[in-house]
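FAQ: What does a ligand-bound record look like?

Like this one, built around flavin mononucleotide:
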Amino acid sequence: MLQLVYISTAVPSVGENDLSKILARSRTNNRHDELTGFLLFNGQRFLQALEGPDAHVESTIARIATDPRHRALVTLSRRAIDAREFGEWAMASFGLRDRDGAAAIARVDALTTKASPNVRAQFTSYARLRAA
Ligand SMILES: Cc1cc2nc3c(=O)[nH]c(=O)nc-3n(C[C@H](O)[C@H](O)[C@H](O)COP(=O)(O)O)c2cc1C
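The answer part, i.e. the structure of the complex:
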C-alpha cells in the first residue's frame, strides 16, 4: 500500500459549500477505491493524507492535483506502508476554523494515534498552528 501526504492552498473563492462537496465526493469515491485518509482545511490550506492500493492512490491524487479549487500542491511524504495508519473510515475531515482550538487539536491527536511519528507530527503541528 501507498501513503501520500500533501499540502495545498485553496483558491480564494473556496467556502464551506465547496468543502461539503469535496467531502461528499471523496467519501463515495474513496470507499469505492478502498482509500482511507484525513483531510484538514483551515479556510486557507488543505492538508491531506491518502492511503490504500498504490494504483488507486496514484489515480486519485492525479485527479486531485488538477482540481481548480486549490493550487500549489506540494507532496510532503510518499511512502510504502504495511498497514493503514488512518483507520477504517473513508475520510475524517473538518475545517479547523469551525471549531474551538482545543477541540480541534484533541480530535487531530485522536485521529492520528496510529500514524507514524513524522506523519502524526505534520497533522498535530498543523492543527496547533492553524487553530490558534
Ligand atoms: C483538497 C481536495 C481534496 C480532495 N480529496 C479527494 C479525495 O480524497 N478523493 C476523491 O475522490 N476526490 C477528492 N477531491 C476531488 C477531486 O479533485 C475530484 O473533483 C473528484 O475526485 C472527481 O470525482 P468524480 O470523477 O467522481 O466526479 C479533492 C479535491 C480537493 C480540492
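Follow-up question: can I read anything off the structure? Yes, for example: The pocket of flavin mononucleotide is lined by residues 8, 22, 25-26, 29-30, 39, 46, 48, 50, 60, 63-64, 67, 69-70, 91 (CB under 6 Å).
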